[in-house]
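Dear colleagues,

As part of the handover before I leave the project, I'm documenting each prediction I ran so the next person doesn't have to rerun anything. This entry is a single chain, and its sequence is reproduced below.
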Amino acid sequence: MLDRLLDASIVFSFDRTGYRRHAKGFAAGDLDVDLTGRTCLVTGASSGLGIEIARGLAERGASVHMLCRDVGKGEAVRDAIDGAHAWKLVVAPIDLSDFESIRRYVQTHAPSTIDVLVHNAGVLPDARTSTADGLELTAATNLVGPFLLTHLLWPRLRPDARVIHVSSGGMYSQKLDVPTLFDPPEPFDGVAAYARTKRAQVVLTELLHERSTRRVSSMHPGWADTPGVQTSLPRFRRVTKAILRTAAEGADTALWLAASPAASSPEGRFYFDRAPRSTHLSRRTHERPEDRAQLWRTLCERIGADPDTAFR
């Protein structure tokens, strides 16, 4: 009863006390795994959660490709990771807001077979910006770019590959609205635009699960003290700094979904602290079937894929 009340409070669930309370229920040994021979891709691996996910996979023996917009920053992170594991880390350039950069990465740097793809990269701009492909930057980086990358890499994913979207608890505040998702209203609200893309990631995960046998899932990290939070949400961080999770605590569920045998059948669900969670806290955020279909069609159209045959 107390756990349910604390989880319903949001604050005492998303914060560090929530993680530590939930962690008491983690199964011992879930992450005592050997990933030798596995190839894992982590976007946004030069900062925050991405560093911890890449580190955790490499420590368990995986070959980890760190997909970074800033290669120099990625190389510095790689060199700072324990020397015993650094040789397993490969830094590759990619800008997920730029279709040309994504295609160039797949053509020139992507491995031929992939076991894990973690979509962790994200942006929360404070002003509206358009990309070279004519998309609003938040939607391009957090949603359309990763969708294109997944589509191009799909033939290289092993049949039992795992695809993980790192969403945000902020998605609970938003309903799926495709026109607003791609064309945010004025005045531009970066936090709302970010949360809309995170809602869309969760819906997209469910849609991919419906269409394929790949192991797709989404998760949210709770409130973690990352450079992204420090830069994009400074006032929020000032108020919550004392209760924020560490980046490693925030990354734990993504690592668990990527590596643990206990997470081998995620079934397109949304996870928080290693447990499947509801994707809605309010009836007002429930989307209609036609909204879900519109999201799929729009995403496919944006990347030039056939909505009927893509990801089959």
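The mean pLDDT is 96. The chain has one domain: 2-303.

All the best with the project,
I.
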